[in-house]
């Protein structure tokens, strides 16, 4: 994901590597009863079921079915505001009650290259919101911008510590 300029201000990594496809953003779905987890997209943690991916003008949709759980992830940006949405729909078709958790992950770059910017990224969680805010005051041209990651609904926990994640 980027803002304004795909080279100078990457919010998350873009590697343009045709051999490997690293993930700088991800969602994981976990069955809390048995610990099994997978991604609603083919990467980073491919499930056992097949994936269907559709792309349109300004959006992508990822459809997957895994162990009786159907997911549909819509990814798009607002037409006017600089906001990216990931809308994840989950449907239990297993016929039994399930307890699931969803974990979102973003590897912040907030500049041109992770190697130059990672040490300058500051994150915080404010008491008045569940969002995690990130900024890089050392990034040329974007020192006053703030990025955020938030979830609709009840966020149980959050961290900006890679080791903790």
What are its keywords?
165 residues; mainly beta; four-stranded antiparallel sheet; three-stranded antiparallel sheet; 1 helix
How would you summarize what this structure contains?
Helix content is 2%, strand content 36%. It has 165 residues and is mostly beta strands.
Q: How would you sum up this structure, described in words?
A:
There is one protein chain. This protein has one helix at 114-117; strands at residues 25-31, 37-38, 51-56, 59-66, 69-77, 84-92, 100-106, 122-125, 132-135, 147-149. The chain is 2% helix and 36% strand. The longest helix is centred in the C-terminal third of the chain and has 4 residues, at 114-117. The strands form three sheets. Strands 3-4-5-6 form a four-stranded antiparallel beta sheet, with no helix packed on it. Strands 2-1-7 form a three-stranded antiparallel beta sheet, with no helix packed on it. The chain has a three-stranded antiparallel beta sheet with strand order 8-9-10, with no helix packed on it. Strand 4 and strand 5 (69-77) form a beta hairpin.
Itemize the secondary structure elements and their pairings.
Blueprint: E1 25-31, E2 37-38, E3 51-56, E4 59-66, E5 69-77, E6 84-92, E7 100-106, H1 114-117, E8 122-125, E9 132-135, E10 147-149
Antiparallel strand pairs: 1-2, 1-7, 3-4, 4-5, 5-6, 8-9, 9-10
Query: Beta-sheet strand percentage?
Result: 35-45%
Based on DSSP secondary structure assignment, what is the total number of beta strands? 10
Topology as H/E string? EEEEEEEHEEE
What is the molecular shape? Answer: globular
Low-confidence region ranges? none
């Amino acid at each position: 994901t980027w803002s304004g300029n795909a080279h100078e201000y990457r919010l998350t990594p873009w590697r343009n590597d045709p051999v490997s496809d690293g993930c700088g953003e991800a969602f994981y779905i976990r069955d809390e009863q048995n610990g099994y987890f997978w991604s609603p997209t083919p990467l980073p943690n491919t499930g056992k079921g097949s994936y269907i991916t559709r792309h349109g003008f300004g959006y992508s949709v990822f459809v997957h079915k895994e162990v009786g759980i159907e997911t549909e992830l819509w990814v798009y940006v607002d037409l006017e505001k600089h906001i990216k949405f990931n809308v994840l729909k989950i449907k239990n078709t297993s016929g039994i009650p399930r307890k699931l958790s969803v974990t979102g992950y973003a590897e912040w770059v907030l500049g041109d290259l992770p190697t130059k910017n990672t040490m300058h990224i500051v994150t915080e969680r404010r008491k008045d919101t569940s969002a995690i805010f990130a900024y890089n005051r050392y990034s040329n041209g974007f020192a006053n911008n703030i990025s955020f990651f938030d979830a609709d609904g009840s966020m149980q926990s959050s961290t900006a510590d890679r080791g903790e994640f």
